[in-house]
From TrEMBL:
It holds the Pfam family Sulfotransfer_3. This is Sulfotransferase family protein. The keyword Transferase applies. PANTHER family: BIFUNCTIONAL HEPARAN SULFATE N-DEACETYLASE_N-SULFOTRANSFERASE, HEPARAN SULFATE SULFOTRANSFERASE. Keywords: Transferase. It comes from the Bacteria. GO terms for molecular function: sulfotransferase activity.
Length: 299
């Protein structure tokens, strides 16, 4: 299959949710040579694989509705997003999905891609089909995955939910998210990392949110080397989403319950990444005991 994407690298960010993916999107979007979708979080593959035909229809309907709102208050600055939304409203299959990147991809730009944290919930079989679809169009795939300590990741998700919806208290929201499997599964790195490794191997970059944003640029520089893109000085202290409830804490018993829920996750990360596990994880999950090996974070 010959397309205008042939020879490019497809950069796919798959999460985790609340692990700095909006910062990553903003930075890569201003990096020369990369053409990211104007929509951060296209949600095509998770809707395709996990939602079914009705969910695909609803995604297209939401896209048309959003496109109508933008068109009603149109400005030149909104043009790229409006066209991307129109593309998404027509995404009936993989061909239409990749047609979006054919349209936005500058012929001189070696990279195209998108970031949707919900893709972390996909299976190895799903990822294999995505990789083959890219390869069939002449593209290599590079996948980026940032892991955030799962108890804190859910805390951030609860803050976002309260800030954007505001129907419940912070504590009640956290309890509700912790009781819902889809939300818990977003932090199940013991399932996500093996599935990604199985399919993408050395074309997978995995790191810790706490390491990436915790000071210094060593991990950022490793990402630049992994992707092979031009280095643009990062502002790692910049936070894209901040909420007024940032300092609010949770009852100790609820934190313990969350840590127990994620005990298999902490055990997996401890065994796989050894001494590279950030201190925040070790303090929460008891990491450091019974380490099997100290793996390279990027693999």
């Amino acid at each position: 299959m010959t397309t205008s994407l042939e020879g490019k690298t497809f950069v796919l960010g798959v999460g985790a949710q609340k692990a700095g993916t909006t910062w990553l999107y903003d930075h890569l979007d201003r990096t020369p040579g990369i053409e990211l979708s104007p929509i951060k979080e296209l949600h095509f593959f998770d809707t395709w694989y996990l939602g079914g035909p009705q969910a695909m229809k609803e995604l297209r309907q939401r896209s048309r509705a959003e496109g109508g709102r933008i068109a009603h208050n149109y400005s030149a600055e909104k043009a790229a997003r409006l066209l991307a939304i129109l593309d998404r409203s027509l995404m009936l299959d993989f061909d239409r999905y990749f047609a979006h990147f054919e349209r936005i991809g500058d012929p001189s730009s070696p990279f195209v891609g998108e970031i949707t944290p919900a893709y972390a919930l996909l299976s190895a079989e799903n990822f294999g089909e995505i990789k083959r679809a890219c390869n069939d169009r002449g593209m290599q795939v590079k996948v980026v995955f940032l892991m955030r300590e799962p108890v804190d990741r859910m805390r951030s998700a609860a803050r976002m939910t309260v800030a954007t919806k505001g129907a419940e208290s912070f504590e009640d929201t956290y309890r509700r998210l912790l009781s819902m499997r889809p939300h818990v599964d977003r932090g199940r790195y013991e399932k996500q990392v093996p599935a990604l490794r199985e399919v993408f191997g050395d074309d997978l970059y995995v790191t810790f949110y706490e390491t990436f944003f915790g000071g210094g640029t060593a991990e950022f520089d490793r990402l630049v080397d992994f992707l092979g893109v031009e280095r643009v000085a990062p502002d790692l202290a910049h936070r894209v989403h901040t909420y007024a409830m940032e300092a609010r804490d949770l009852p100790a018993e609820l934190v313990r319950q969350a840590a127990e829920t994620y005990a298999p996750t902490f055990a997996f990360v401890d065994a796989e990444f050894g001494d590279q596990v950030p201190a925040a994880w070790a303090a929460r999950g008891g990491a450091g005991r019974g380490r099997r090996r100290a793996a390279t974070v990027g693999g």
